[in-house]
Request: fold
Amino acid sequence: MDPITILAIAKASYEAIKGGIAVGKEIQGMAKDVSSLFDSVAHLTRIAAEPHHGSLLSGKTAEQMAMEAYAAKAEADQMMADLKNHFVGEFGLAAWDEVVAATTKIKKDIKAAQIQAENEQAELMDNIAQWSVVIILFLTVAAIFSLLAIAAFHR
Reply:
């Protein structure tokens, strides 16, 4: 996805959070929007670090891609700063640090689980391939012995 699209997602999440706060909704009740904003900012941070991975075939110059990525990240960072200020004002800096640390840990745990599942899937496929070879060899040998037995019987 390009930075402009990701920024639009971040803005939608941010506006939903601001709207919820304006009507007195608890920030915990807006977890989906907060999560979406966090994810969008993280994605924009990755794109801004390496804007050339965005869309090489978009017809944009390197400067355009870099500027779009930087501008989108800067705007998203400002939204995150506003959210952080509101959160810290309501719950304190320690609570914000705890949420950020928990978010990081959960994302690492999810990534580790995905890697483990992929490794287990690869191992299963290897086992299936190995057993398939063994079964094919067994059937081939059985067929050869059957043919030899039939040939010997007909002599």
Summary: Helices lie at 3-22, 31-49, 62-91, 93-153.
